[in-house]
């Protein structure tokens, strides 16, 4: 059973697809989010959850105070379950492949991005997604990549660098940060005051 760990939806049971996803465990989410919250990366942030699967990471972020979450998931049944799980939370679900989504024009500047791709995704494909992701991120955004503990560290593209690495059993997460943005921040700011 997968549940929301903390926040306004704490304890909510998340429906998960019968196969094809591996929701991030509650223990890992608690540790991951504790670290991110300590660094100021959840409350009031805009969050992207690529390869969303069950949506556990994006929904957890919304429950803990993210103001906008986009979950990108290619499997239609999984995307439908995320919509059901995210009722009354600021979550938008996009039914599309992450590899396709990152090639779209950037219309937001996300403060935090989660990538939890299938373990069998080739490393070069993950690198391509990370490269395509950069224009969609704020100038100091955090990126969390979750993989098998046997996976090598992701190849960080120019403009991103590793800030931490954690391992929990069969799961490893690398956190990176945007260090150099390719363009001006895409967020629209109202300057008429």
From TrEMBL:
<dbReference type="GO" id="GO:0008168">
    <property type="term" value="F:methyltransferase activity"/>
</dbReference>
<dbReference type="InterPro" id="IPR029063">
    <property type="entry name" value="SAM-dependent_MTases_sf"/>
</dbReference>
<dbReference type="InterPro" id="IPR004398">
    <property type="entry name" value="RNA_MeTrfase_RsmD"/>
</dbReference>
<keyword id="KW-0489">Methyltransferase</keyword>
<dbReference type="GO" id="GO:0031167">
    <property type="term" value="P:rRNA methylation"/>
</dbReference>
<dbReference type="Pfam" id="PF03602">
    <property type="entry name" value="Cons_hypoth95"/>
</dbReference>
<protein>
    <submittedName>
        <fullName>16S rRNA (Guanine(966)-N(2))-methyltransferase RsmD</fullName>
    </submittedName>
</protein>
<keyword id="KW-0808">Transferase</keyword>
